[in-house]
Fold this sequence. Notes:
10 strands; globular; Rossmann fold; single chain; two-stranded antiparallel sheet; N-(1-d-carboxylethyl)-l-norvaline Dehydrogenase, domain 2; eight-stranded mixed β-sheet; alpha/beta
Amino acid sequence: MNPSNYEDFENQFIPLRKKKSRMRYRVAVIGGGTWATAIIKILSTNLEHIHWWVREPEIEEGINRYGHNPLYLSSVFINPKEVKVTQDIRLAVAKADYIVIVTPSAFLHKTLEPLKKSKLNRKKVIIAVKGIVPETMQVVTEYLRSEFSISFNNMAVISGPSHAEEVSQEKLSFLTSASSNVELAETVARFFKNRYVRTSVTNDIMGIELAVVLKNIYALGAGIYSGLGYGDNFIACYVANCLKEMKRFVSKMYSSDVRQLTDSVYLGDLLVTAYSKYSRNRMFGNMIGHGLSVKVTLLEMKMVAEGYYAARCVHEINKKEQANIPIVEAIYNVLYENIPVSAEMKRLSEYFI
Length: 353
């Protein structure tokens, strides 16, 4: 877009934005990928003060000059007068009271490294990351609590069946805000609720956080089976068995009377990640099933497939827990132990009912 035409383009959106009174909470978003861009789009409808940390200079320039992220979801308009973009993570955090973390878990430790513990532990932190921090083998809430002394009551998780591509197209989506702090869970739900996003709240923060780690691994397995030529009938059976395994592992790690795995934040998220054309984890697995090596697949993927890193992390965690998770173990064997793909996945299928 020609910069000279930017003001006219921007003004098309101002009347729509002014119709709704937005909340004055100060929020920073950490991460510049597809889901981070979709979250910025959602939050912009509800919040007046948004600061956005991105790693890449071209993203900062693209938004400030043209109102678009040139690398991810480039069709989404982002008003630079409303969203302040910076490459200085310390500045973004200092300007906000609520921090939304959307950096992939594999890079989270390095991303937060510049921050002093005292600069983060008084903030409310909203976790939109779906993975385990590999340096410490912890889910993100546990990592933040141990590394930054953030109170568990000051953390929330936002999750649900919500591919960024569909959010960018304003297709109806559902998100769940989870926190042991009911007031925080409800506040986060208000941040994310708009015309095309419906929200709910729960206190099962640890169950949801672990479930979203597992569903990425299972989606990778669905892609492997699809790449190997297995049909929809079989993959439906596979997903049903994944849900059983998820229940066993999550319940062993974090028991809860309120958890219902048939809710959209559990089953819905598993289904969309296992079946959707937008699922990078399914895509990763599909490439493996078609015969590409793990190394080549990692090079070919333009976005992070969290399931790849999560498989190793859950495998390591389970050395202590000793839960019955043959699906995760089979996928780990394929990805990290060089076990032949076809033979290992056929062996696994013999356990399904």
